[in-house]
Amino acid sequence: MANQSRIVVGVISDTHGLLRPEALAALQGSDLIIHAGDVGDPEIVDRLREIAPTFAVRGNIDTSPWAQALPLTEVVEVGRVQCYVLHNLLDLSLDPKAAGFAVVISGHTHRPQAQVRHDVLYLNPGSAGPRRFTLPIAVARIEVNGSHISHEIIELQV
């Protein structure tokens, strides 16, 4: 993927076994997809792979035997940008900037959030699965162009 100038990354998390058609539609056009855990069903990763190459990490609900194949953390290279992926940001055990990561992607809270701290983008796409309390249903998109990173959170109308 390094020879592409603009790379679109679809980011999804906390599907809990429910892959909504609105989430699939929002992820169309992605060059790759990152699922930040609590997948809930192996078919979800298979369906995401029909759109684009997909990286997924294991979340706290991913306890079935199939989920043991999912790593707890993943490093995803997007052009010249390194992304660190884990489910629960509280489990982050490294200094992302010192380790060379420009983006940290997590899920778990079901709360969509994006914040830049110390030149590192911390992105939580929120939950794309079953609604929790009054939190929105959302996914996110990252665009990488060289070393420039832009992002957006996409609230799904469900």
Topology record:
Elements: E1 6-12, H1 21-27, E2 32-35, H2 42-49, E3 54-56, E4 73-78, E5 81-86, E6 103-105, E7 113-117, E8 120-124, E9 138-145, E10 148-155
Parallel strand pairs: 1-2, 2-3, 5-6, 6-8
Antiparallel strand pairs: 1-9, 4-5, 7-8, 9-10
Q: How would you explain this protein's 3D organization?
A:
- With 158 residues, this protein is mainly beta.
- The chain has one domain: Purple Acid Phosphatase, chain A, domain 2.
- Helices cover 9% and strands 35% of the residues.
- The protein has 2 helices and 10 strands.
- It has helices at residues 21-27, 42-49; strands spanning 6-12, 32-35, 54-56, 73-78, 81-86, 103-105, 113-117, 120-124, 138-145, 148-155.
- The strands form 2 sheets. A 5-stranded mixed sheet has the order 3-2-1-9-10, covered by helices on one side. A 5-stranded mixed sheet has the order 4-5-6-8-7, with no helix packed on it.
- Strand 2 (32-35), helix 2 and strand 3 form a beta-alpha-beta unit.
- The radius of gyration is 14 Å and the shape is globular.
- It starts with 5 loop residues before the first strand and ends with a strand.
- The mean pLDDT is 95.
